[in-house]
UniProtKB/TrEMBL annotation:
Full protein name: Cof-type HAD-IIB family hydrolase
Pfam family, one: Hydrolase_3
InterPro entries per UniProt: Cof, HAD-like_sf, HAD-SF_hydro_IIB, HAD_sf
GO molecular function: hydrolase activity
Keywords: Hydrolase
Source domain of life: Bacteria
Length: 285
């Protein structure tokens, strides 16, 4: 019997057009009506995830920034695993020395010490990743007016974050140099006590070493008295691998998932553009 459903957002619950389908919402609400708990597990910050989930009509708890924070439906922080200041400063400095774009998710919003041009190219990379029909160059031209760009607060130094007493949940980078991104995912955890993964081949996500979606779900389930074989997890990318291991009862890969996710999951559902989450819930409940 399934008692908890944990779903990723981008590439999973959210379509490539950045919406959550009515069929997905209806399936989630049916599950909740049966007494099954639903929780969001995403690499996004709470401020980024919450508005879209609520506007779709879903009320639930959140594991955000790959498990760096657990928040309830009202947005209150229940548990946190942040990065220490010295560690943030060292990693940001290394990324900038490697000419990488840097974005920092904090309790006070999203900040970037990268210059304006670098920020625009990073947003263009995101747009091109979600919409391949839009060239990188065209995406760059519209980047400054895009909501992704406008959500970033420019800073001169990460010191400004700590001067305002904000905590850092995640350091992120975007680049079309996927070889460099892949290399950093391997090298950074060897040099620093961090977890390094990504939502897509173009991005790097650095968190507290204990901030892993799988471990976060296990801790959450334990606090609820839910056994691992009573949990359904749904995801599509690298940062979902931790919650798609054999210890969970029902692990679902999206039809659009990367090969590593499909190989690890026990089942495969439809794509994020074809209500894959809703279909998986309907099938197993």
């Amino acid at each position: 019997m399934i008692k908890l459903i944990a779903s990723d957002m981008d590439g999973t619950l959210v379509s490539n057009n950045h919406d959550i389908s009515r069929n997905n919402v209806n399936a989630i609400k049916k599950a909740q009506d049966k007494g099954v708990e639903f929780i969001i597990t995403t690499g996004r910050s709470y401020d980024d995830a919450y508005p879209q989930v609520v506007s779709a009509g879903i009320e639930c708890n959140y594991l955000v920034m790959n498990g760096s924070e657990l928040r309830n439906a009202q947005g209150e922080i229940i548990q946190s695993l942040y990065l220490e200041q010295t560690l943030v400063e060292q990693i940001v400095a290394e990324l900038q020395q490697s000419d990488m774009y840097v974005e920092v998710y904090t309790t006070g919003g999203t900040f970037s010490p990268s210059d304006k041009e670098t920020r625009k190219w990073a947003v263009a990379t995101k747009i091109n990743n979600f919409h391949p029909e839009i060239s990188l160059e065209d995406a760059y031209q519209e980047a400054e007016n895009h909501f992704l760009y406008q959500a970033i607060n420019p800073i001169h130094s990460v010191h400004e974050i700590f001067e305002n007493d904000y905590d850092v949940g995640k350091i992120i980078s975007f680049s079309n140099n996927i070889e460099k991104i892949a290399e950093l995912r391997i090298s950074l955890p060897k040099k620093y006590p961090v977890n390094a993964t990504g939502s897509f081949s173009i991005n790097l996500e650095v968190t507290n070493p204990l901030a892993d979606k799988g471990e976060a779900i296990k801790h959450y389930a334990n606090s609820r008295g839910i056994y691992l074989n009573e949990i359904m997890t749904i995801g599509d990318s690298y940062n979902d691998l931790g919650m798609l291991n054999d210890s969970f009862g029902f692990t679902i890969a999206m039809g659009n998932a990367i090969d590593e996710v499909k190989k690890q999951a026990k089942y495969i559902t439809d794509t994020n553009d074809a209500d894959g989450v809703g279909k998986a819930i309907e099938q197993f409940l």
